[in-house]
Amino acid sequence: METSTLGGLDRIFFPRGIAIVGASNNPEKLSHNWVKGLVQAGFPGGVYPINPSEREVLGQRAHASMRDVAGPIDLAIVCVPRTLCLSVVDDCAAKGVFAAHFFTGGFSETGRPEDQALEDALVERARRAGVRVIGPNCMGVYNPEGKIPWGPSDLMDVPGEVGFVSQSGGHAVKMAEIGTTHGIRYSKMVSYGNGADLDGGDFIEYLGDDCRTGVIGAYLEGSRDGRRLASVLRKVSRVKPVVLWKGGRTNQGAETAASHTGSMMASADVWSGMLRQTGVVAVRDMEELADTLLLFQQVKQLNGKRLGVVCGLTDGGGGESVLSADACADHGVDVPRFSPGTREKLSSIYGEVGSVLRNPVDVSQGYGDVGKLRQALGLVCGEPQIDIIAVYENVETLTRFLPKGVMDEMNRLFIEFASGQSKPLVCVLPPGASDTAWLGARQLLLAGGIPVFTSMDRAARAIANVRSYSARARTS
């Protein structure tokens, strides 16, 4: 796609009207759920079910064809058999539809020459008609600000500044779900499947120019134009972080990707070299992707990777300290010793016996004393060689040994502390048997703007990723 046309993608994410081609009153059909989701979300434009066999769907008047709709249609969601897709393109052209999202599969991803030929014919006809194609074989767009829920569902969250581009519909669904539970707030999301026309590079470039998007995540399996993708990644990563998870990085994975989205294979070395040269943050799995996006969302950048760790809020601080130090070392995150003056002051608060005061600091001798914890946090933050603070919070132990309400008091302290000083603070909450208490603690912290990770390993990995990008951005 030429750069000059990228602004037109606003009509995909903020369409004046959406047609659901193949919409049905059968609640077991995904086309029915697409209509339901848009209506329940309060989509402000026209919602037009298209089906000659229906009079209305969920209170929305049905039309036999898009040509019969009086209002404007910018986006068509196509849920009909592939044999009908060429005629749908003709209807889109006649109506002046900007883009057609083909949920329908059975094209190049099958590996059959005849299905590849059908996909080629679909794209060729659409290009002649001036209709852009999303897909085929994909879940399409999600825009909380524009009241477009995720796919054929009612999944909708408050808008944020994380953009996400995915070649896999399943991974996009999971990332949308993770967003609602882990505090990642999306500006826009798109699953583009086979990428026969609009592909990952197009959407990443669009999000790079989008003022509502501050950080971009992506899951890619391949590209039809590797040179252009590299150019886009290099350009966009200069202005905002791009966190990219490459699927099919092994030979076996690449072969599977070819049958999933019809992706063209390239060696792992080629992809690794390209990602390294373009300045993106490369991650290996969904956990690392989500953690890194969350940290970018909350802290934007890190001035360094020197971590001050506070462990043992009530018990077990020694083991937590060792675990934390190992995790940080594994990912190249520094855990510098505190100055003698800070260690002396910590000793006056907690005593020498049973305490580790060097960093990570074990505060278990405070037995849940929030006042002492406040003093310790102030000392750690005051260390000039510390760039970011991590608090290891074992919810299971806190709820078992401390009076009711003390854990919430601690978490409110962390929120207050983080909002009052410039150094970022994150919390590590390993899951335990008490799901209710753990979920409550995580929700309180996330609502207060504190990034939450389920292990120190995951926290350290995210910190290393954000710092790596921040360091490159400062020198570029």
What does this structure look like?
Helix content is 44%, strand content 15%. The N terminus is likely disordered. The strands form four sheets. It has a six-stranded mixed beta sheet with strand order 8-10-9-11-12-13, with helices on both faces. A five-stranded parallel beta sheet has the order 2-1-5-6-7, with helices on both faces. It is elongated and about 80 Å long. With 476 residues, the chain is α/β, with parallel strands linked by helices. α16 links the parallel β17 and β18. The longest helix has 20 residues. It has two domains: 293 residues, Rossmann fold, CATH 3.40.50.261; 175 residues, Rossmann fold (3-Layer(aba) Sandwich), CATH 3.40.50. The chain has 17 helices and 18 strands.
Keywords:
about 475 residues, alpha/beta, Rossmann fold, 2 domains, 5-stranded parallel β-sheet, 17 helices, about 45% helix, about 15% strand, elongated, disordered N terminus
Give the beta-strand count.
18
Task: Provide the low-confidence segments as ranges.
Answer: 1-5, 257-261
Shape: elongated
Strand order of the largest sheet: 8-10-9-11-12-13
CATH level-four homologous superfamily name of the largest domain: Succinyl-CoA synthetase domains
| Spatial extent as radius of gyration | 25 Å
Helix-strand makeup class:
alpha/beta
From the N-terminal CA to the C-terminal CA, the straight-line distance is: 27 Å
Number of helices: 17
Please tell me the CATH architecture of the largest domain by its name: 3-Layer(aba) Sandwich
Helix content: 40-55%
CATH class of the largest domain: Alpha Beta
CATH topology value of the largest domain: Rossmann fold
Largest sheet: 6 strands, mixed
Report strand %.
5-15%
Mean pLDDT over the full residue set: 92
Overall domain count: 2
